Amino acid sequence: MRKLIWVTLALFAGAAFANEQVVQGQSLKVKERLQVIELINIAAEKEQVANPEPLDAELLAILEEAEALEEGQETKQAE
Amino acid sequence: MIKRVQQHSKSPFARKSELSDDKTMNESCQRCWPTAYFIWASLTLLFCSQAFAEQYRFDRPTYLGNAELLPNWAETIVRHRAQKLQIDTCLVDEKLCDSRGLKSLRHILLRAADLEPERQFSLINRYVNKRHFRRDRAHRQLSAISEREEVFRSKWITLLEFLRRGGDCEDYATAKYFLLRELGFPVHDLRVLVSYDRKVRGYHAVLAVRQPDDSVWFLESNGSIIRGKHRGYHYIFAVNEESVWDHDAEKG
Hints:
A: 79 residues; 56% helix; B: 252 residues; alpha+beta; C8orf32 fold; 2 domains; 7-stranded antiparallel β-sheet
């Protein structure tokens, strides 16, 4: 029983402090922080999910019409 | 009295057999403990991972200051405001749209205007995500913050620039931001949020939209809309056309 309590405590403590350990940086002044932010390389390319948000027929039709307009075709527009 | 007699009358063989039964039970219990421990630990871990999933809160990050503090982002907003005239003119009359991209944008904005917010998110998310992914090229530029030449690897672009040539994740998020602003969503409910994605091990941007119940939805560039908690993201900073917020400062 004592073992069980210790393991529970260890697990909770580990989970609670896991994130803190990742980011234990110094407190930077605003300018220094902005310099860091400015140079971050935001470039992660995420794979498309297998099942994207399902769209109903109306939304799909709107997207198709928009695509057709972009390709230079005339569409019936219900505006 | 009869019971006592019966207890005493048990044969030594029967007593031995009872003892051996107890022993077997003890052994089997000892064997099942590791399994029980394993199941219990897994359930606890599962609970912990749910409980500590990072919930994005609009009121939590440290306010760094005005959007002008990030010159590249501020310039993008200025460019977008200049280009907004083209969008507004095109919205008035289709004949005044000077490109096919603008025509399609007009169509989306006019048709989305009558939809309820959830369907607007779905439509905008899909419309933007269909665009071409194009990674930014690293470029040297004089930094207005450090006042020396730096290598920039990300470049913020406007909605029209994105519609013309595509972009990478921050451009998808920015395009969604400007589109939802066009649809009338208030500036204080929208943020382009930059996080470190532990799964892909890189910095990633999404559009965070605050809902009326204070939950936050993420319009992702991978086709999904995440409602509420998001595991796997470590939030870094957020911007909208008014402000910059820092997420790391609160932990520093």
